[in-house]
Amino acid sequence: MPFAKEIQTTVFGLLVAFFLVAIAAGYWAVFGPDSILGREDNPRLVEATSAILRGRFYDRDLTLLAETTETESGVAERDYTQSAMNSVLGYYSLRYGVGGLESTYDTILSGQALPDDWSTFVNESLLHRPRVGTDVQLTVDLSIQQAIVEAMGDQAGAALVVSVPSGGLLSLVSLPTYDPNTLATDWETLVEAPDKPFFNRALQGQYQPGSTMQTLLLGAASLASLDTTRQFSGASDPVDLDDIALNCVLAPPEGPITLIQSYSYGCPQPFLTIAEQLGEDTVYSYLERIGDRQTTLLQAFATPTPTEDTTPTPSVTDEPEANFQEEVLGQGNMTVSPLTLSTMVAAILSNGSTRQPHTILATKPPQADDWQPYTVDRNPIPFFTEDTANALLNAMKSAFAVSPLADMPRPEGVEIGGQYAISHTGDGQVRWFVGFVRLPSQQSASIVIALEPDASIDALNHVVEQTIMATIDNLTEATPPQ
After folding, report:
1. What pLDDT digit, counting tens, does each position of 157-206 carry?
2. Cis, bond preceding 320 (omega within 30 deg of 0)
3. Which domains are present in the chain?
4. Are 215 and 320 in contact (CB under 8 A)?
5. Exposure letters 237-253 (e unless 16+ CB within 10 A, then b)
6. 3-state secondary structure of 188
7. How far apart are alpha carbons 42 and 46 in whole angstroms?
8. Would you say 448 and 130 are in contact if contact means Cβ atoms under 8 Å apart?
9. pTM of the model
10. What is the number of helices (H) and of strands (E) in the chain?
């Protein structure tokens, strides 16, 4: 019957429709949630992300540095408790992302690194509680950080203190910086600011090394067994480089002086003579070590910046051909970061090799009672031979002995070494201190300070003195980070 045939056709169509609906329902039940939740515009994902209670930051003495609290609206709010730590902690913002150590340890702090176990499923999926991240204990020491920030004041520049031999960063300062607590209102102003507060000078700054290059040249001379006690006449004579006259950083005594003395006073003329004696191939081969080390060092840190063209020294797209004299004097194509120089000094303190610098000591997951030590890369980074490192260590102690701070008070048995240096940029001079402190217990720290532009010697002296005093106090009182 025609009517029965129509019924059969209708029933068959309904069965096909139900079958397709069942397949679609099964797909969305099994695979759909992940694809929907994974969309950035999904309101539930945004809501869940905004409610995450990120882990806390603590310094090495377990002083609270940053925490997240839940507001009445359900949106979590990040609070940074110590303004001196701003340049190292960075920022977390639902709108602007993460920077600094907030970025480096984002997966830990946000809880993404935690296992998807039964407890996580119950709390987040069934009870709809916000995810809780893991707390992080840093190697950074708040008291050293505060001393340096206070000493630098409004002066632009960078400072690093690294524990030796552990490689833990005791302090990392970059100024000017920003207040992460007011990021929402200040963002546009900060991004357009000419002094580039988002730019981390300690890690990302690529400075011409200037007379800090003399440490490497002295190392090359030592490796080549050149006589560093040789007397140089006219050691204090200026070296003319284009429109710049390079002079001794500190006033040397009258008459001939040795290469070690030339290093102590930062006189360029003898090092130009030594470089010519070593030859271009030897010098360039030795200087390339620094460039190779810089890439390795920066792999340890995530330092995104929302601005472009933030290098404090002029950058050149098409690098000009190297000029040997300019490279030897630290005014050529080669650039260094304060982090690299700090690690170089750490190697000098450690018989030629040092550990990868790091900023994390331990973590504590939610509901955990104890801190769990964090495993870091302990593979040594070679810089010098043991004999060369020892020669440079003694040279740095001799340099500090004639510095403006030679007579500063210190506990008995504490050794201090370091060279004052200057580099020239398009914006003026950068003043450097590259040195160390070492306690009788052999606990040590490398110290690198760069002040720019055109900082006075008195300003540098003040920062160096306060940094050394704070570092000695804290190495004496506390066990260094591992």
Report:
1. 999 999 999 999 999 999 999 999 999 899 999 999 999 999 999 988 88
2. no
3. 50-138 (3.90.1310.10), 142-179+191-359+380-477 (3.40.710.10)
4. no
5. eebebeeeebbbbbebe
6. helix
7. 6
8. no
9. 0.85
10. 18, 19
